[in-house]
Structures are given as structure tokens and as C-alpha cells.
Amino acid sequence: MRIVSLLPSTTEILFAIGAGDDVVGVTFECDHPAEARERRIVSTSAMPEGLTPPEIDAYVVEAMHRGDDLYHLDAGALSGLDADLVVTQDLCAVCAVDVSVVDDALAHLGCSAEVLTCDPHTLDEVLESIEVLGRATGREAEAVALVGDQRERLAAVVARVADRPRPRVVLLEWTDPPFAPGHWIPEMIELAGGECVLGTAGEKSVRVTWDDVTAARPDLVVVAPCGYDRAASQGLADELVGRGLLPAGVRVHAVDANASWARPGTRLIDGIEELAAVLHP
């Protein structure tokens, strides 16, 4: 089987279940595991490099208003890879190539590859997507085993934080303007033994104000901007503190959003375990 993965999360899942050798095409964001970088890149960003968070937000808002794509799909590269399976999403036009773009490109090329969309909104759906990919690639046993291991680790965290006080947590999915999280992230906070006081599980992330953040009375602010690693998140966290935008004296923790929060892949459990250790040392 020849697989093109247009999502960093599905790329890491495919490698984790033993289908990495079948992956022939990826996106420019597929950086885990490192071996994924050796595959042909078929999707790149339309956004200029070097933009600040407010500039990125403005670019995205304007592009969405115009109906422009935020990603470029290299149809020639896609055609040359002769894929049997293309994995994409229909969840977020800001996150990756939309399934409609993939369908149009394959139809134009006369390619008969199967298109599989992975659109998890909750943590359970993330785990289900691992099994879906396992069935689609003939690695069902490996996928079931991986999900079992993930659920065991989740259960261990839940048991460790049970009956402990639940600190109030605000997680910032973006910092300028501030966004409260949705989808699986509020669940992650709750499983780690915190109380998510901004954002709704299973829903989209929402724009909030700094007054909203203050009114939420957080004990901890987690800085987890989508697309940023830990070092870049720490830089933004330091900036927020320096500008006095966060409640006075609140604890601030920067995370690797790419690895363990924003991407619905195998490493969300790492984020839950890390946050549990911060909340309940």
C-alpha cells in the first residue's frame, strides 16, 4: 500500500502502528517521527514565513473571508506518488488541506486513491481514529494494542489525581488575540486533574478577551499556541507576563503545543501526564 498523509497527527499515528514504510507523501508540518521528514512533501503553507501571532491571525481571517486556501497541494507530486490511500481532514481549514481540495485534485488527475478523512473532536474520537487507520492499513492489531496502552496511561493519571483539589486552568490556544480551547483540550485538562474554566470540550476554539481570562480566576495559565513548540511557546508566555496581560501572580506554564496538545495524535497522553505533574506534583 502507498499512503499520502496530509495531517501531522495521522502521519505520527501511521508510523506508530507500523505503517511508516507505506507512507510515501506527507506535509511540510509532518515532523514526527524524524523519519517522516524523508518522505515527499505534497502540501505546503500559503502563509508567508516570519509572521507574528497577530499577523498570523490577521492573515488567516482575511484569507478565510476571501475564501482562499491556506495550504498548497502539489497535485503533480500527488500524482507521481501513485497513492492507494490519501488521509486528510474536514475539521479545520486552518489546520491542513481540506478534503474538498483533495477530492478535486484527485478527480482532476484521474486518480482512484481512497480518501480517508480523520476529524476527531474529542479524546475518544482521537483514539478511535487510531483504530480506523489500523483497519484501513491492515495494522488493526497494532492499532488496538496502541489504543490499549494509551487508555492504560490515561487511567493511571486519573487514578493518581482522583480526590485531589482541582486547580482552575486557562489554556491559551492562541495568544494575540487570545483563544480558549475546544475539541479534545478541555478534556485533557480535566483528566489531568484540573478544571478547564475557559473553552468547551468537543466544540471549536473561541476568541476571548484578557478580561475573560482574568474573570476566570485561573490558578494556572497554560500557553499552548497552535503550531508552536515549547521554546516558541515559552517566548510568547514571557511576553504575556512582561506586558502584564495575565492575572497578577498567576502560575504560567508553556508547553510544546505541536507535540502534545494541538495535534490529535499519539502524544496527547504526554500532554495530559505533563499537566498532571504540574498541577499535582
From TrEMBL:
Signal peptide: none annotated. This is Cobalamin-binding protein. Residues 2-281 form the Fe/B12 periplasmic-binding domain. InterPro entries: ABC_transptr_periplasmic_BD (IPR002491), Vitamin_B12-ABC_binding (IPR051030).
